[in-house]
Each structure stands twice: as structure tokens, then as C-alpha cells.
Amino acid sequence: MGFQGFQRKIKPITGRRMSNRWFLAAIWIPVLAMALTACNFKQPLPMVTENLQFQKIPIGPGPEDFVLDSSQGAPRFLISCHERREPSKNGDIRFYQPDTGETGILSRMDEPERLKTFKPHGIDIVDLSGKTLLYVVLHDPYGNDERLENAVGVYQVEKNDLRMVALMEDKHLWSPNDLSVLNTGEIYLTNDVRGKLDLYLRRTASEIAHFDPRSGKWSIVADGLAFANGILAEADQVFVTTTLGDQVLAYPRNPDGTLGEGRTLVELKGGDNLTRYGQYLLTTAHYDDFAFLRHAKDAKKPSPSIVMRIDPAREQKKAIYVNPGKTISAASTALIYNGKLYISQVFDPFILVCDVPSDIDW
Predict the structure, then answer these.
(1) 1, part of any domain
(2) Could you give the number of structural domains in the chain?
(3) Using an 8 Å Cβ cutoff, are 243 and 271 in contact?
(4) Which domain holds residue 172?
(5) How many helices and strands in the chain, by DSSP H and E?
(6) pLDDT for 119-151, tens place per residue?
(7) 6: in domain
(8) Which of 163, 173, 243, 281 is 20 to 30 A (C-alpha) from 268?
(9) Is there a contact between 304 and 323 (Cβ–Cβ < 8 Å)?
(10) Could you give the CA distance from residue 325 to residue 81 in angstroms, rounded to a whole number?
(11) What's the angle, vertex CA 328, arms to CA 41 and CA 40, rounded to 5?
């Protein structure tokens, strides 16, 4: 989940300008008050999970998303890292090998000169035409500090390096958050918000974009969403979380890549990235918007972390990890590997590994 900071400037108001501004305030304050009242900023946490053995794995700033890579032998996590509180010019794709504990940064090769910065967000990995490819959402690729300028970087995964094979640029990539890639080379991608009003008013301005490798073109295949965030594409359906719409949706997928009408699987406050584990989906959730914003500015202020297990067939959800933020704040991605639960987060420089709760029936 992305976060855009904001500043509020206050200027003295005098004379005629004062009366004009008070007139505008008289109109807009009630409207904003109604909008804010209607918003669901916070929900009570499910029962907090306790007595779980856990370990914090130092990785790097802002390990927001990760995937599991087995192309180079022993499985390893590839992790999208970027300092998100005070965004730096460049982030990294880092790795963590759970069997050995080794961590490091993958070098990037063959990037074009026009790629001036590397600010990664959502990632996905796929085996395609005998190669393992990592797809990376890239913000502000040209270094212009323009939030609506974005791209998708495609890298061939090697042992110590990532070798760029394509830099995908298109008008449909106006605010990409996450993406999911099929073994056909088709891409589904969420665009979240165009600006602050979309956030404040929870406007249904988000879209899902689709890339068709046969035509080489992007198109919009779903719209009318409130902050579309995590996405998981499968052969017959596409799952999406809406962070401000408080839903996990399922769309039937047509042979040409278009999507049918979405249906709500479960209501879920503040859903984030999605992964698959057997018959279930895993997602994280942000139950307290203000706590998230405070944590985004100050690491010492906690934000609750929740991991939800979703059963698409039964349209049911169950919390499998809940922490008020003391152990990990603002969790963003969850993945189960080799009997352990791995959790990443938006801001702080570590991922968490812990036992899967024993009372969960898998």
C-alpha cells in the first residue's frame, strides 16, 4: 500500500478574501463533515494472537512486498524495499534466504538511461519462456517527482543480479500499486488514487489495468473501485482488495483477458496485498487509518498489523495473526512457507517470521 505525505499551509485572511473564504468554508465544511462521518476510519481489532515464537529479519527500509523465488536453487524471498517515510531517490530489490539466513541486495543490469530513479512498489514473479521474470511497479521513473509518472520494470532473475528485459510505459499506469502476472505474460495491475481528494473522500476512482502480450497494449478492465490495492490473477478469476472500499472482490476472467462483474467475497477493512496458500487467500489489513498515518510519520507510533485468511469458496474470513503494532506495524504482505508465516510491512526495515497459529484448521 502506498502512502503520500501532505502538508497544510495556513495563511492570514483579511478583507474581502476573508468573507469569500468564509462563504466557501460554510459550503464545504458540512460536506466534508458528512463525508468524514460516513467514513469508517477504525474498527476494533480481532482477538490478538499471543505466545507465538517470532523473529525479526533485518532487511532494509520499507520492505512492502515480497515473492518466493526458487529459480536459483534454494528458495529465497525477493523483497521490494524503498524508504517510504522520506522517499529516497532509489530503493532496492533485496533477498532473504530462509534456509541459511543470508540477506543481500541484487544488482540491477541493463537499465536504460531514461530510468533515473528506482522506487519499487508491488512485485510479482513468473516463469515465462524458460526464464524467471520479476515484474516491478516503479514510481517516478524519470526523476521528475511526478506521482502520475510510473512504469513497470521487467527483469530476468539471475543468481546475484536482475537483468532488465523491458521497461513498460503507458498512460494506463497512472498510479500503479500492485500487479499480478500470469504464465501467458498477461498482467493485471491496480491503479489506486489520482490525488488527495480520492483519499479524503474515498472516491471510487480506482481502476484495474490489463496488459495483453499478443497486442502489446494496455486497457482498463474494471473501474469504480475505492483504492484498489492488492491483486492476484489466476486462470479463471482475479482477486482484488479495496483499501478504502473495505472489500475483497473476485472477478471472473474471460478468455480475452477482460473481466466480468465483480462480486464481494468478504467485507474487510483496509485490505492490502494478496497471496495464495492452498485453497485460501492471505491478505493483510489496516484497521486504523489514523494509526497508519501516525506511523507513516513516526516509527515510534505503532499501527496494528493483521493477517487474514480468506476462503473464496465459502466467502469467509478468519484472522490468523493480530498484533497492535508492538511487534510489527502496518503489515503489507503475508506468505506461508515451510510451515512458517512471513510478514512484510510498509515502513520499518524488517520482515517478521513466526509460527502459524496451531488453532488454525488448514
Answers:
(1) no
(2) 1
(3) yes
(4) 42-355
(5) 3, 25
(6) 999 999 999 999 999 999 999 999 999 999 999
(7) no
(8) 173
(9) yes
(10) 20
(11) 5
Domain containing 102 — which CATH number?
2.120.10.30
Cell of 325: 503494532
Question: How far is it, in rounded angstroms, from Cα 132 to Cα 193?
Answer: 31
CA pair distance 211, 220, nearest whole angstrom: 9
Per-residue pLDDT tens for 87-117?
Answer: 888 999 999 999 999 999 999 999 999 999 9
pTM of the prediction? 0.90
Of 70, 65, 71, 77, whose CA–CA distance to 102 is shortest? Answer: 77
- Reading the block at residue 235, the C-alpha cell is 486462470
Q: Binning pLDDT at 50, 70 and 90, where does residue 36 land?
A: very low
Going by C-beta distance under 8 Å and a sequence separation of 6 or more, which residues neighbour residue 144?
A: none
Per-residue cell: 344: 512484510
3-state secondary structure of 46: coil
Q: CB under 8 Å to 326, separation ≥6 — which residues?
A: 302
Q: What is the 3-state secondary structure (H, E, C) of 323-360?
A: ECCCCCCCEEEEEEECCEEEEEECCCCEEEEEECCCCC
Q: Would you say residue 226 lies in a domain?
A: yes
Number of Cβ atoms within 10 Å of the Cβ of 335: 20
Task: Copy the grid coordinates of residue 41.
Answer: 476510519
Residue type, 46: P
- At 213, list the grid cell: 502480450
> The cell 506495524 sits on which residue?
329
In a domain, 71, yes or no: yes
Residue type, 88: S
266: cell is 468478504
| C-alpha cell at position 324 | 497492535
Does residue 33 carry a pLDDT above 60?
no
